[in-house]
Amino acid sequence: MPIRQLPHTLANQIAAGEVVERPASVVKELAENALDAGATMLRIDITDAGLTKLVITDNGHGIPQHELPLAMSRHATSKIASTEDLFNIHTFGFRGEALPSIASVSRFTLTSRPPHAAEAWQITQDGELKPAAHPPGTRVEVADIFYATPARRKFLKSPRAESRAIEGVVKTLALAHPGLTLTLVEDGAESWHIPAAQGDFFTAMRPRLAAVMGQGFAAQALPVEAQRPEEGAAIHGFVSPPTLHTGTAAQQYLFVNGRPVKDRQLQTALKNAYTDALPRGRHPFAVLFLTLPPQEVDVNVHPAKAEVRFRHGQNLYGLVYAAVRQTLSQTRAPVGAAAPRPTAMPMASTLQASLGLQAPPQKLLKGAEPSTPPTPHSVQPTPTANGHTPAEQAFLGAAIGQVANTYIVAETAEGSMVVVDQHAAHERLVYENLKQQFAQGRITAQPLLMPAVVSLTPADAKLLLAHAAELEKFGLEVESYSPTAVAVTALPQLLGDANPARLVEDVLNDLSDMSPRTTLHQRVEHVLATIACHHSIRAHRRLSVEEQNALLRQMEATPGSLTCNHGRPTTVTISLPELEKLFARR
Ligand code: ADP
Ligand code: MG
Questions:
Q1: What is the mean pLDDT of the chain?
Q2: Are residues 479 and 572 in the same domain?
Q3: To bridge 416 with a disulfide, which of 31, 233, 252, 412 should be the other Cys (CB 3.0-4.6 Å)?
């Protein structure tokens, strides 16, 4: 075939191949045009999942009659004019491709009227222009999508899947634009109507979180807010507490300058912020908005603009990670009325003494006499072993006793009932203590009198020994024994009589789960969480009231102790009003 210029329609169809993948992408492009036109109302009306017909109506500033033919031609846009503009983009669109692309693969009609125009005008895919009746704003009708490119039509999924994809676009729009009134009508029935939200961002977003991500998240979502003025960067949004998570990353919405993006690095930053808080394989909920100077983001990487490139990606990683981390570290269940203050309790000594992890353990467990022994009905905060507990510190209350040798029941000054899972709580405390030791250099190891020989596959033995130097810092010392066995010569002292074979097995699981991309920080937190799991007050262990109180006081002094390393709650609180309700007193 000789070289020749492609006809316009064919060129547009080729462009459509990238921009218009499915009906949902048409919805996305047209909605973005409406937003660029300042619309505050958007109505999406689809028939047969948009395969038969898709109509989008907005109340934006419209297109004047004389510009309509231009709007329909390729590379025609009102949004940028120079190369400089290309790197300083403030709108969703700028490529001037959506309208001609969509029109080239469908039966297309655009009707528009600027607010002060006397009448509306309508243009079709063939460029035919005629007057029409329409209120101010724009209406785009896309019928028989891909009729002109049947091959593409064959790639579409089931109508159900296509309509779910459209709903996905609507959800994303609802989150990104709280001020937008959004309506989705499917086959004549209104399936979504989200009125414009009122109030400041954090208030306005709650109903939208509920509509899009569920009541559970809306009720529990923790606000995230941080700035880096020197970089002109900021982040705000919501994330789930460690106790709320899901099996996929689908409930994570990231926006950069209002644009939904899928970005590996930002997703990783979010994931890493939860490293020691979630069970493996679980994912947090998140809606995060990053704002950056437009010059920092290159949106011209992907025709559908789903991916962007950052000039300083590493800074953004840090911003997301630090902001989410900060939010999570401030998380404390609303126990008692007094706001817990960070305390200066010396962690290592109190923890070890109070829980009998290290000599001299017996002192507290048997000997220490609290100055005011707690009584079952005491509503006073109980003093700790060291004799003083500021009232506001004792927000977990005074221990009353144990249920099933597993749960500690306590009463707060306000009369709330606190139930603590002693195993989960202790695991968390051990973990925090290990973390502290590690941060100060290394975890104290306890040499074994008799090295424990652990049989392994040759590959596992090799993997473990390759990390021997690293593991030593964790207080776990291993040596080569044979090609199919290692000798464990020391264990972290905090673990006492842990089973070396099981610990090695779990650490190996950690090591083989880690990709080369896993950061050192993550590896450390993983391994520490695994180690912590191997020694804690097991369920079914009888504790004295003093031990119970010591555990509560230690939890109060330990950030993050209200969830265990696996993201389960360690504590459940039932307030007095809730109790009264249970007994129909309210
Ligand atoms: P782009 O959005 O990249 O500029 P499009 O092909 O999507 O390219 O749209 C072409 C032009 O048509 C836009 O630049 C804008 O001026 C105008 N336009 C499209 N849709 C609307 C709308 N809903 N309201 C007002 N103007 C619109
Ligand atoms: Mg556009």
A1: 82
A2: yes
A3: 412
